[in-house]
Amino acid sequence: RKEVEQDPGPFNVPEGATVAFNCTYSNSASQSFFWYRQDCRKEPKLLMSVYSSGNEDGRFTAQLNRASQYISLLIRDSKLSDSATYLCVVNTRTNAGKSTFGDGTTLTVKP
Amino acid sequence: NAGVTQTPKFRVLKTGQSMTLLCAQDMNHEYMYWYRQDPGMGLRLIHYSVGEGTTAKGEVPDGYNVSRLKKQNFLLGLESAAPSQTSVYFCASSHYSGQPKIQETQYFGPGTRLLVL
């Protein structure tokens, strides 16, 4: 079983839709969590950190459920420009500097 | 402030040739990483460094060597390239915080596309 697992999708949604991605992690000692966005043939870029209390940035909301060991990303009112691959990232103190990346979930928003 | 830069952007090698990929960061980050990403796949960690003069193996280190002689630079070497090393290579760097240390957000370079024939 992978340390970090994501539904690969693809998710194909119309503009204006709400879409949610989940990511599960297996190491209960995981400390910090992030969502990155990767456009085709480009480098990953930080979308948002995920805090225990949940956090929101415009149309994007991230949630953390430590008891069930998963994080989620909700995108409201999807735009064409949201089409990308979304990577879940988990950091664990015992991993001495390494981050664990999920394989990503691909989202395509269609007109 | 250029962030993380990678050289070269694209390279074609013949099987058995060697090359070095250069990564440079100007953010004074302690941690640096080399990943590879194959088409339709996730990122796989090759080697990483938690400070100048230190390196460690990641998930897929075979066929690669690294050096971190200066804090701002992290070099990835391929001694004898193989077609299986055709990939996109990303370098990244990050700060750390807390005790014991845990890395913060990673900043990625634009990638090096390598084709081994």
The biggest chain-chain interface is: A-B, 23 and 26 residues
Q: Note the total helix count of chain A.
A: 0
Gap from first CA to last CA of chain B: 36 Å
Query: Which class best fits the helix and strand makeup of chain B?
Result: mainly beta
What class do helices, strands and sheet pairing of chain A give? mainly beta
**Euclidean distance between termini CA atoms of chain A:** 37 Å
Quote the beta fraction of chain A.
Answer: over 45%
Shape of chain B: globular
Poorly predicted ranges of chain B: none
Number of helices of chain B: 0
In words, what does this structure look like?
The complex is a heterodimer of chains A (about 110) and B (about 120). With about 110 residues, chain A is mainly beta. Chain A has no helices and 11 strands. Chain A has strands at about 5, 10-15, 20-25, 30-40, 45-50, 55, 60-65, 70-75, 85-90, 100, 105-110. Chain A starts with a strand and ends with a strand. The mean pLDDT of chain A is about 90. Chain B has about 120 residues and is mostly beta strands. Helix content of chain B is about 0%, strand content about 55%. Chain B has strands spanning about 5, 10-15, 20-25, 30-35, 45-50, 55, 65, 75-80, 85-95, 95, 100-105, 105-110, 110-115. In chain B, strands 2, 4, 5, 6, 9, 12 and 13 form a 7-stranded mixed beta sheet that branches. A 4-stranded antiparallel beta sheet of chain B has the order 1-3-8-7, with no helix packed on it. Chain B has a two-stranded antiparallel sheet with strand order 10-11. Chain B is globular. In chain B, about 35% of the residues are buried. The chains are: A mainly beta (about 110), B mainly beta (about 120). The interface of A and B includes residues 34 and 104 of A.
